[in-house]
Amino acid sequence: MKRIIWISAFCYFILMGQVPNLNAQEKKTNYGKATDEIFPYDKFAKAYKYHFLTPLEFYGAGREKTAPKDLKEVRIGFLGPLTTSVMVPQGIQMLQGATLAMEEANKKGGYKGLPFKIMAHNDAGLWGAAANEVVKMDDEKVWAFLGSIDDIVSHVALRAALKLEIYMVCTGDPDPTFTETNIPWQCRVISDDRASGYALVNYIHKKKGHKRVAMIRVNGRYGRVGVKEYADAAVRLGYPFVIEERFNDGETDFKSQIERVRKTNPDAILLWGNAKESALVLQQVRAAGLKQPVFGSDRMVSPEFLKIAGPLADGIVTTCQYNPNSTDPKYLAFKANYTKRFNQEPDVFAAHAYDGMSIIIDAIKKVGLNRVLIRDVIAGLKEFQNYPGVTGKIVFDHSWNDVSDIYMAEVRNGKFEFSVAPPMETGQRAVNGKKGTNSYTN
Amino acid sequence: MRIMKITIKTSPMLKSVILAFIILSGLTGNMERVSASGSPKTGKEISKASNQSSPKETSVKAVANDSKPMPVYGRWKNFTTRDGLPSDKAYAVRINGNQVYVGTHDGLAVYENGKWRTYTTKDGLPHNGIVTIDVSEVTGDVWIGTLGGLSRWSGGKFENFTQLNSGMPNDLVYGVCCAGKDVWVATGGGAGHYDTNLKKWEIFTEKNAPMHEPWTYGLSAGDGKIFIAAWGGGVIEYTTSTKKFRDYRDPDGEMEIDLLPNDGPVHDITTGTSWADGKLWVSSYFGLCNYDGTKWKGYFDHDSGLASNFINFIRAEGRVAFMCTDQGLSSTDGTNWVTYKKNDNNADGKAIVTTNGVKKEIPLSPSISHNFIIGVDADKDFIWVATSSGVSRGELLK
Q1: Cα separation of B284 and A340, whole Å?
Q2: Same-domain check for residues A412 and A283
Q3: A34-76, pLDDT tens digit by residue?
Q4: CA B257 centroid distance within chain
Q5: Residue A227: HSE in the Cβ half-sphere, 13 Å Cα cutoff
Q6: What is the pTM of this model?
Q7: How many CB atoms lie within 10 A of CB B278?
Q8: Domain boundary assignment for chain B
């Protein structure tokens, strides 16, 4: 009997060790395509609750509503930086991309003979202002809306979109937390900074084997939130930044930041900012005699960066949300039509806005003029999953984030060349570029 | 049916191990059933289990497992545009003595003596979309947050505050809260504080308060403090006597997980706060939590009686908190739960009572107007609920 008691007690303590986790939720997959070694806390403890494992449904009313019979046009909202912002050139490209998609749809008869019309609103980049613009869109009776580039604006607009129940298709904001709000009234049709960050971590630390990376970033939300996923993943691999320096948009002299970076003697330098400042930092890094490889964020992929950086740009590696050199016939047709219509080549914001607006238009054609049904058909992850956009196949995860291919972009002979970023490798890390066991580095 | 008898020859020691395993499996098995880990049970599964006992309204006593029973509301009456509401889409509800104010997408509706009266921009409101309402205990004024500004309803007139004519942070007011002479608003451009004596606005953003971002979507007052639900910033606590802030963040700092349920707010994206009976209740789109000044406690739909983790609004009255979720109205004292749900195919529904992990159902006929709950208010005998399709009034079952 004593033996039974001892064995029972032993089993009890073994099992009780598990009791605190009995209520915990079972994780089925890693969110954001994260490998186990970079998933938060995964090396130490299982989380009690994992989010974004299944897409949220919208359980509210409104599916029964019918559209007014006296409509003269089908209004779709647009929110982007059109005036009073440093992002105006990008905002105009975005508006042009959306306009092209709409014009093409109208040439094909619009929606049951009614023309589509863009109701354009400026995002001033000021806290809260976007909320007022979404209220105006509600007053204008738009059926869905597209926006924006600025992450602050996009967040504020999204919360208003939930309150007013207007579906928001984001085509320019790569802030991961946009879709991580868990609001079932949005999707993002562009890869986010989580994807960029993981691709860069893979490239810089696993492929190239760098250990000591210095970060120089813009002192704004794009820089702060943008680098977070890179920084977190790098720390989990054992490679925290050796230094993190900041600059402001519009700044032109980076000597003090670069001098502090020099003192840390890094293996590599990572830049995170807009094209102009990134190019100027690169110039001054090289002028200071620093020869380390330089990597950067997606906004470096622009003619402005290449123009300012000149020959120094060669060898720079960054990420891009699509392949601007794609030879896909659909993309080539878009590029030709866009260039003909607007007398300039499309950029990343134009191409993704074209795809986003096309999704809204196709959704309306499928389900008619009802805001909830438009939401349902896009968020249902069936009819619009793997949507064939001009930027490539659009794949949504359970938070409606676009997790399709992200591209590595490398400057060679003054031009960016693009290749699909490989999935993150696991196993032993490469060290200083030398091949390690189970590593794919060359 | 053919039954196979299996005999296994084992050593006494192995028998002991098997016996211990069976006993302990039974223990842990019960715990798993209660917690229903993984995906939440469907309505069908719950109905199946509870249909065996077929409880009726008279089984209200089943709610209590101590001397303080959870209130259960029934005899629901629903109101829509057919009854005089300006819109079926209701955002907010507030009880004020014999009057009930309902904020809808198309105007303010006031219920008094069994009749509805509507107020719109024609009557002086800044916008027809009425999002949030509170009543000043000091002056009796009604403060109304709209899609296009804040309004003070006093002496039969609406006095409007907007970004252009005052120091308001933003015109879309998600939350309004009266605290003595002060009125607080939650907006996407920061939290606003209006001193009605000085007629002066103060704005709190990430620049002068410990907010991760200035996006605020709910607030409440209690214990000499203002509790601001900050989007991405957890809860910001402002002590009115010292004018000092402190924040409460999800300690794991990650959006995709909650590492530990009882270590702080369950998520940094918070949607509402409510303080009552010594407890701060915090809602989010990722679950619920409360804080008694010492300990945090988290609740999710897979480990409690909470209808859904997606909580639009929260209000605590006494020891009971009411959660407006996208799949029903839940109430709890932290241990016991009552969730009200409408059937999908008719006007009836049920109150699902969860006590010590055991669920029972009380049939309701009719039930609440819709399961997508956006606002709630309760007093001694009645509860009013604003939903995605209509407004509901329930009576306390005694």
Answers
A1: 48
A2: yes
A3: 999 999 998 899 999 999 999 999 999 999 999 999 999 999 9
A4: 22
A5: 24
A6: 0.88
A7: 11
A8: 44-396
Q: How many CB atoms lie within 10 A of CB A108?
A: 9
A212 part of a folded domain: yes
- Looking at per-residue confidence, does B33 or A386 come out higher? A386
Same domain flag for A198 and A241: yes
**Residue position matching structure tokens 């989990």:** A236
Please report the pLDDT score of residue B19 as a whole number. 40
- The answer to whether A379 and A169 have CB atoms below 8 angstroms apart is no
pLDDT computed for residue A43 by the predictor: 87
Judging contacts by C-beta atoms under 8 Å, the chain B residues touching residue A155 are 213, 215, 231-232
Number of domains in chain A: 2
The candidate with the shortest Cα–Cα distance to A353, out of A180, A173, A223, is A173
Which pLDDT tens digit goes with each residue over A197-231?
999 999 999 999 999 999 999 998 889 989 999 99
**Portion 55-84 of B in contact with A at CB < 8 A:** none
Q: What is the DSSP string of A8-22?
A: HHHHHHHHHTTGGGT
Would you say residue B25 has pLDDT above 50? no
* Same domain? A230 vs A366: no
* Residue A269 contacts residue A294 (beta carbons within 8 Å): yes
Name which of B255, B341, B370 to mutate to probe chain A: the one with the most chain A Cβ atoms within 10 A of its Cβ.
Answer: B255
Query: CB–CB of A48 and B256 under 8 A?
Result: no
Where residue A132 falls (left for φ over 0; alpha for ψ -120 to 50; beta otherwise) is alpha
- Domain-located, residue A55: no
**A179/A285 same-domain check:** no
Q: Compute the distance between CA of residue A14 and CA of residue B327 in angstroms, rounded to an integer.
A: 38
Over residues B18-38, the mean pLDDT reads 33
The CATH code of the domain that includes A260 is 3.40.50.2300
pLDDT 10s digits, B100-133: 999 999 999 999 999 999 999 999 999 999 999 9
Task: Check whether residue A367 and residue A263 sit in a common domain.
Answer: no
Cβ <8 Å between B172 and A56: no
Contact check, Cβ <8 Å, A164/B147: yes
- Tell me which residue has tokens 């049951």: A112
Spatial contact of A251 and A277, defined as CB atoms under 8 Å apart: yes
Nearest 5°: CA angle at A382, between A52 and A399? 20
The span from the CA of A341 to the CA of A349, in Å, is: 16
**Alpha carbon A436 to chain centroid distance?**
31
Q: Any idea how long chain B is?
A: 398
Q: What is the mean pLDDT of chain A?
A: 91
Comparing alpha-carbon positions, the chain B residue that sits nearest to A153 is B188
At A40 the pLDDT is 95
Query: Does the beta-carbon distance from B300 to A49 stay under 8 Å?
Result: yes
Domain match, A261 and A389 both: no
Cα separation, B216 vs A128, in Å, equals 10
Of B370, B327, B387, B372, the residue nearest B89 (C-alpha): B387
Residues A250 and A283 in one domain: yes
Closest Cβ–Cβ partner in A22, A40, A127 for B35:
A22
* Tens-place pLDDT, residues B288-345: 999 999 999 999 999 999 999 999 999 999 999 999 999 999 999 999 999 999 999 9
pLDDT for the residue numbered B71: 95
Q: How many angstroms separate the CA of residue B173 from the nearest CA in chain A?
A: 10
State both tokens at B122. Answer: 């024609």
Q: Looking at the domain covering B44-396, what would its CATH class be? A: mainly beta
Residue A296's domain comprises 194-320+406-420
Among A228-242, A360-374, B52-66, the least confident range: B52-66
In contact, A283 and A95? CB cutoff 8 Å: no
Q: How confident is the model at residue A24 (pLDDT cuts 50, 70, 90)?
A: confident
CA distance A176 to A157: 15
Give the least confident one: A381-390, B203-212, B282-291, B387-396: B203-212
Return the residue matching tokens 């302990």. B24
